[in-house]
Amino acid sequence: MIQTLQALLHDQIEIGVILGAHGLNGETKIRPYTDDLENFQVGKQFILFHSKQKKYFYATLNRIRPSGSKLIAQWEGYTALEEAHRLMGFEILTSIQELIPKGPNEYFFYEVLGCSVIDESGINIGIVVDILETGAHNVIVIREDSGQEDAQEILIPFVQAYIIQADYVNRIIHMRVPRYQS
Fold it and tell me: In a structure prediction context, what are the per-residue pLDDT tens digits for the chain, which is 182 residues long?
């Protein structure tokens, strides 16, 4: 089962998570992980995966609409509140190859997370462990590559002013590290 699950998920990427039921007619509220809502195509079959329960199944998206920063979705075969409530916590997966292509100077979070960050003098300053979404721009969280649990974290705005080169294939980002005067 685990081998089959790993094979199934190897080229899949999370594009959202179901937060719970919405309304009485089987709709669900979704927190999207993508700005491009075209990745949620009506009529498409998605894998719904619950990582804690290690459960998955296929579900077809019937309708979707924005609701503030969330989405409201109707899944085929889910027509009641109780049915929709059972979907809470399931991640919505799609194939990486099916993602809407990104434009120049754009990136997917999965490409950035786990990359080594090298400063302009060639020193490895750490690994990208998180991306913070702020109103103005994204900020990457870099954990020093010391192997210790209490390793220091560095926050750097992930904008062109600091990015020298991003090589997502080789998992290396060359950056200018901001220097602050005290």
Answer: 455 767 777 788 899 999 999 999 999 999 998 878 889 999 999 999 998 998 999 999 999 999 998 999 999 999 999 999 999 999 999 998 888 878 887 888 888 999 999 999 999 999 999 999 887 889 999 998 766 677 889 999 999 999 999 999 899 999 998 877 76
User: Residues 36-54, buried b or exposed e (16+ Cβ, 10 A)?
Assistant: eeebbeeeeebbbbbeeee
Q: Is 32 exposed, middle or buried (0-12, 13-18, 19+ CB in 10 A)?
A: buried
Q: Are residues 17 and 70 in the same domain?
A: yes
| Residue 163 and residue 88 in one domain | no
How far is the CA of 24 from the CAs of 48, 73, 87, 143, 173, in angstroms? Answer: 21, 13, 14, 44, 47
User: How many structural domains are present in the chain?
Assistant: 2
**180: in domain:** no
The CATH number assigned to the domain holding 78 equals 2.40.30.60
Q: How far apart are CA 107 and CA 102, in angstroms?
A: 7
